[in-house]
Amino acid sequence: MRQSSRTVHSEYSKVRISERLEPGNMPNATFYAESVPFEQIEKLAISGGYSSIYATSKPSVDVVGNWQNRYCSLADTFQPVLDRVYNFDVREDDVWIVTSTKCGTTWAQEMTWLILNDFDFEKAKSEDLTLRSPFLEFNGVVPNVPHDTIEAANNLPSPRLIKSHLPAWLLPKQVWTKKPKIIYIFRNPKDAAISYFHHWRGMVGYKGTKQDFMHSYIDGYVNFNPFWPHVLDFWQLRNQPEIFFTSYERMKRDLAGVIKDVCKFLGREVKDEQLSQLVAHLSFDKMKDNPACNHVKEFESMKAAAGREVDEFSRFVRRGIVGSHKDEMPQSVIQEFDDWTEDNLKDYQLTIEDFTNYSKY
Ligand code: A3P
What we know:
Layout: H1 5-20, E1 31-35, H2 38-43, E2 50-55, E3 71-75, H3 79-86, E4 95-99, H4 105-116, H5 121-126, H6 129-132, H7 138-141, H8 149-155, E5 161-164, H9 175-178, E6 181-186, H10 189-204, H11 210-218, H12 227-235, E7 243-247, H13 248-253, H14 255-266, H15 272-281, H16 284-288, H17 296-306, H18 325-328, H19 331-345, H20 352-357
Parallel strand pairs: 4-5, 4-6, 6-7
Antiparallel strand pairs: 1-2, 2-3
């Protein structure tokens, strides 16, 4: 079994946290950042700093495990953004799409935006999805771009549809008091990791090996990871009326069923004709050729900020299948993922199928 270098790192952090939380040490900060070892940053081809973010006090949402050991890996460019996100004004009628990366976020956003906007396909095709449904912490991913997504979200009329990849405890604190509806999409981490690998090559310019990237993923070093606690926090909230937990796999298996459930969750009507129109609109082939859903605006920002081409990753909608890891991941790495999954789920007596088969209604 792969020994995650994170185990060691977390133990180390525990000691550091208790030292740092001595009264008067960091009294006002909501989070603190601990630098990620340089060799990990170098391995991921990140040019700036990179940190594990920890909470300095108990989060207002219940999280799995000991909150003091919970961290989220984020490039240091997120640090000026995190407090703004945490203090963001949430509205009760917001709808949030929260996912770990590459789990079908864009797909779920397009589906939900259309449900929330009376199936206005014309507007959906003519206005970029990133404007209709802002990625709240995007300026942490790509800093120094003129488009401020937090400001854009502030200025959107209700009902807003907001995307975030942050774990529950790093979301705006008002999320847990105003209780907007949250749609959480799970995906088998082996497929999500393969998808992230392609993303990282195209977006970040990663030139390392697939195996190294997969190890960084398992060890929780890529942006927004570790994966399993991110999922488990929302899994344990799944029965709350304002939480809708579903999976990429279920969307592939029964898109019409998921659409009907989301309509029920959001209290929206869907006619048979609208349902079949939406299923067709959300098909992989249609989405692949829909420029409004291909993150064109984000690519432009990225190109401008990086000063380099990101052509290799011209298609955000890439393969769109369940099981892409089977022909893209070496068998030894599949085994490492399986061991890591078992290790993370055994205390909860859960398997991947529990998440992929789950249906709220
Ligand atoms: P692959 O890279 O495996 O193809 P996110 O939006 O969270 O970044 O997720 C991206 C993944 O969702 C990509 O996976 C992408 O192809 C897939 N995806 C996007 N639209 C899809 C659709 N209409 N049907 C199936 N998969 C889709």
